[in-house]
Amino acid sequence: MNQPQQQHGQHPGQFQGQRYPILLSTMNDLPGYEVVRVFGEVFGLTVRSRNMFSTMGAGFKAMAGGELKGLSKLLSDSRHEALGRLSEEAMAFGANAVLALRFDCNEIAQTASEIAAYGTAVYVVPHTQR
Predict the structure, then answer these.
(1) Which helix (H) or strand (E) holds 54?
(2) d(CA 83, CA 116)
(3) pTM of the shown model
(4) C-alpha distances in angstroms, 88 versus 4, 45, 81, 85, 98?
(5) Most exposed: 25, 66, 90, 123, by fewest CB within 10 Å?
(6) Phi and psi of 92, rounded to 5°?
(7) What whole-number distance in Å separates Cα of residue 62 and Cα of residue 67?
(8) Per the similarity annotation, which family is this (predicted)?
């Protein structure tokens, strides 16, 4: 994994090359960085369903085999939405990173998918800034 690098003049919570406004990592610690404050658990949640015709089309595709591209896109979009909401909640606490990031997925009444992203909101600084 490439270590996130801050660019000169960048806010301490912004990392180069990140898709989200704060660092999100599945690791429990971050090499080259020190956790100086722990804010606690944060999560982002979304529940989505597909329209009836889309679901029927996916059912026919499933009989033939192969990737269900519409469902893959729905789940991918849902993950990104959940991560965006997780980032917003963490930033509201003053965090600049979320560590130990995990996902949980559930089906609700066979009509919708719930995607939850959760982790620990923290504030990290590079070891050199101590």
Answers:
(1) helix 52-64
(2) 8
(3) 0.74
(4) 20, 12, 11, 5, 11
(5) 66
(6) -65, -25
(7) 8
(8) Belongs to the UPF0145 family.
98-128: pLDDT as tens digits? 999 999 998 888 778 899 999 999 999 998 8
11-65 tens-digit pLDDT: 444 455 667 899 999 999 999 999 999 999 999 999 988 655 555 555 555 666 6
Q: Residue 124's closest CA among 38, 41, 40, 33?
A: 33
Structure tokens at 8: 């000169």
- The residues with which 115 forms a beta bridge, in sequence order, are 46, 105
3-class SS letters over 66-87: CCCHHHHHHHHHHHHHHHHHHH
**What residues contact residue 83 under an 8 Å CB cut-off, 6+ apart?**
20, 24, 44, 117
